[in-house]
Specification:
The protein is α/β, with parallel strands linked by helices. The protein is built from 14 helices and eleven strands. The strands form two sheets. It has a seven-stranded mixed sheet, sandwiched between helices. Strands 7-8-6-9 form a four-stranded parallel sheet, sandwiched between helices. The mean pLDDT is 92.
């Protein structure tokens, strides 16, 4: 089957992250060795639909794996939006290979992008291979995604830097970190930098118990500054929302706009700013701070797209290259409908349909225990 493949298309979809170019370069290295041409499809599924392609000549892209972002550009286009039959649409998409001048396709993206590829394979028998990409690390089929550790390091460095300002001003900083449904980025960077409170989507928080009580205990134990790391998708428990919140209600969350795949745009809630407003309304908290000789001052910082910025770290460069190599080998071997995956330190293969499922931080995860111990032990250990 492999000798039938002369041209392989590559597209990158969804949000950008460090390591995308590393995957592209890994694919190109193996393709050149196998005498297969690479065709770049621009702007993800948008370019796929509009026949926007460029030739990819490896001679023009030395050491592409060291460069951040994606030379193919990206978009969050959903080819299934508004269609009555996903099966018929998938068959139409599979037929576009001829127009695009490709024999097979490697799709690099998250659950949305690869979900499209999976339907094309399932219903249209398209020759597609997937490569998992999500800065959030929330795809079930792989232990880690490229870009994740670069983003964790960047967020961790930022939390470290903010700690010095928080110390100088005796201030509370609430730092909003990417993570719509899963808290991996917030949890890992928060633990790494020693954040004082870490709030993630998997464990809805209680404003009184998880923030205000902890801040009171910390200030009474002698702490003068505090860093709260919060996922953009973290949200309060319903009883806390009804009982403790003055500036938002359940209706506020229900009315959030949705993206093209129907996901609520939780980043538009600006949860970090809401927490600042809520804490500013709490006279009991301010009194507790003043009793300990500290003026209560709270600021929010949203890391947002800065977390996708810059060049990939060494881990993500190498993982991207390994994923690209493995994806191209699947094409050569005719093993379509699969996704490359990191399991432990080995690159393996899982079916696209399984690989694209979501994963979350589970209650028994040792990071949960570490987070809770970090919060509790520090103020307990200082109590006289």
């Amino acid at each position: 089957m492999g000798n039938q493949i002369k041209n392989v298309g590559i597209l990158t979809g969804g949000g950008d992250c460090p390591g995308l170019n590393s995957v592209i370069y890994g694919i190109m290295l193996k393709a050149y060795d196998a005498d297969i041409e690479c065709v770049g499809i621009l702007k993800g599924w948008k370019g796929f639909l509009e026949n926007k392609t460029i030739p990819l000549d490896i001679a023009e892209h030395d050491d592409l794996h060291t460069v951040g972002g994606t030379i193919l550009y990206t978009s969050r286009t959903n080819p299934f939006k508004g269609v009555s039959s996903k099966e018929e649409r998938a068959k139409e998409l599979a037929k576009k290979f001829e127009e695009l001048g490709i024999d097979a396709l490697i799709a690099i993206g998250g659950d949305d992008t690869l979900g499209v590829a999976d339907k094309m394979y399932k219903f249209g028998n398209a020759k597609v291979v997937g490569c998992p990409k999500t800065i959030d690390n929330d795809i079930a089929g792989t232990h880690y995604t490229f870009g994740f550790w670069s983003a964790v390091q960047l967020a961790s460095n930022t939390l470290d830097n903010l700690t010095t300002t928080a110390h100088s001003h005796q201030r509370v900083f609430i730092v909003e970190i990417m993570g719509r449904d899963a808290g991996f980025l917030t949890m890992y960077s928060g633990i790494s930098a020693g954040a004082d409170i870490i709030l993630i989507p998997e464990t809805p928080f209680d404003l009184e118990k998880d923030i205000i009580d902890v801040l009171k205990k910390r200030v009474n134990a002698g702490y003068k500054h505090h860093i709260i790391a919060i996922s953009e998708g973290a949200y309060p428990k319903l009883d806390s929302l009804n009982r403790d919140f003055k500036t938002i209600s359940k209706e506020t969350i229900d009315k959030l706009p949705k993206d093209t795949f129907g996901n609520p745009l939780l980043a538009q809630l600006n949860i970090s700013q809401i927490i600042v407003k809520e804490l500013d309304l709490r006279d009991d908290l301010k009194q507790e701070f003043q009793k300990n000789g500290v003026d209560f001052e709270c600021r929010s910082v949203v890391l947002g797209h800065t977390m996708r910025a810059g060049t990939p770290n060494s881990f993500d460069r190498i993982l991207g290259l390994r994923f690209g190599l493995a994806a191209m080998k699947l094409v050569i071997e005719g093993k379509f409908g699969n996704m490359v995956s990191l399991q432990g330190n080995k690159i393996t293969t899982v079916p696209l349909s399984e690989g694209v499922k979501k994963k979350y931080i589970t209650p028994e995860n040792d990071k949960m225990e570490l987070r809770d111990l970090l919060v509790k032990i520090r103020y307990l250990s200082k109590q006289k």
